[in-house]
Amino acid sequence: MTDSVRIERIEAILVDVPTIRPHVLSVATLKAQTMVIVRLYCADGIIGLGEATTIGGLAYGEESPEGIKLAIDTYLAPQIIGMDANRPAKAMAAAQAVAVGNRFAKSALEMALFDALGIRRGLPLSELLGGRLRDHLPVLWTLASGDTKTDIAEAEAMVAARRHKTFKLKIGKRPLKDDVDHVAAIKRALGDDVSIRVDVNQAWDEPTAKRGIAMLADAGCDLVEQPIALNNRAGMARLRASATIAIMADEALHGPTDAYAFASEGAADVLAVKISQAGGLRAARAMGEIADAAGVALYGGTMLEGPVGTAAAAHLFSTFPSLAFGTEQFGPLLLTEELLAEPLSYCDFGMAVPEGPGLGIALDDATLTRFRRDGPNRTVRPAPRAAGG
Ligand SMILES: O=C(O)C[C@H]1C=CC(=O)O1
Ligand SMILES: [Mn+2]
């Protein structure tokens, strides 16, 4: 029996960092990203890090950064302070007892608990999660400037620098034909050595999706992500049955139960796994296992997290036996500022999984202080929250 280590204090910090360019999705346009960074202080001096980040405030899902901080400060932290930091599952069961939903808030706490445990045991998070199978993950880049020529130039520079060779295009905001022309132009310019996928972020109804998927297949697109509303699983199954290219579920997946439903009903070829959307590391790992057992392909998704959430995702995805569609762990590269003392390493069209214990990262405290919303020298305003951005 190991000694118990008291959870002393938990901080949830809102951090607003500008993006390198506007990031245009069908549901929002990001000009800055807001992260909730959690610091979990243990009695032995170890501080675990966690992150929960949303897209466009409340435009993408049902939790906002401000709501996540409130849930942690007011409900979840008081519940687990005083508990044993060596027992993440027990602490999270106590959090579960006082909050029915709030997957993102819980996920940030669970991440911080596992980071602290890994540091204490001298083990990378990937080993705590069952063991890493790879040290390098393929990472795609999202072209979402809102302009076809800019997107092509951006993609060409990424390929030349060997940073990315798979691209995801955000569509669904414009008329279908304009979107398909945009995709076709990018595919023509980049050629057969790159893979082009699209993310509709639920913008289409089913008939539009049926036509759109066929047109996109003709344009050389390889995959369509969440074309229709997240609650229309039967529609996803129908689209999948008629499509000649891969159909991926994203927003519809809120944890293992949804992964099971999608897998058993044949409602997607690929599942996008996101730690916070799943409700935490253990839930996200379970989604991977369900997909594997069902023979459904996996993709390592992002909520455009900063480096803390991205490092956690890299550890988790490194343990998946198969990651047929790669990952999109590029969130830190979309930010103007480096929040880590030592940046995550991106090379050879992907990223290195951090090596050190826990998440294997350390924050740059000066940068965090500069960009925290309650900091003395705050320079960035929270992103505007108008619908559609
Ligand atoms: O996939 C999403 O829906 C959200 C996110 C991930 C990459 C990106 O550009 O946006
Ligand atoms: Mn998506």
From TrEMBL:
Under the heading InterPro entries, the entry gives:
Chloromuconate_cycloisomerase (IPR013370), Enolase-like_C_sf (IPR036849), Enolase-like_N (IPR029017), Enolase_C-like (IPR029065), Mandel_Rmase/mucon_lact_enz_CS (IPR018110), Mandelate_racemase_C (IPR013342), Mandelate_racemase_N_dom (IPR013341)
Copy the pathway line from the protein's UniProt record. Aromatic compound metabolism
- Report the leader peptide range: none
User: Active site: which residues?
Assistant: K170, E328
Q: Which Gene3D superfamilies match?
A: Enolase-like C-terminal domain, Enolase-like, N-terminal domain
| GO MF assignments | chloromuconate cycloisomerase activity; magnesium ion binding; manganese ion binding; muconate cycloisomerase activity; racemase and epimerase activity
**Keywords noted in UniProt:** Aromatic hydrocarbons catabolism, Isomerase, Manganese, Metal-binding
The UniProt similarity line reads: Belongs to the mandelate racemase/muconate lactonizing enzyme family.
This chain's protein is named Muconate cycloisomerase
Which source organism?
A: Sphingobium fluviale
Cite the source lineage: Bacteria, Pseudomonadati, Pseudomonadota, Alphaproteobacteria, Sphingomonadales
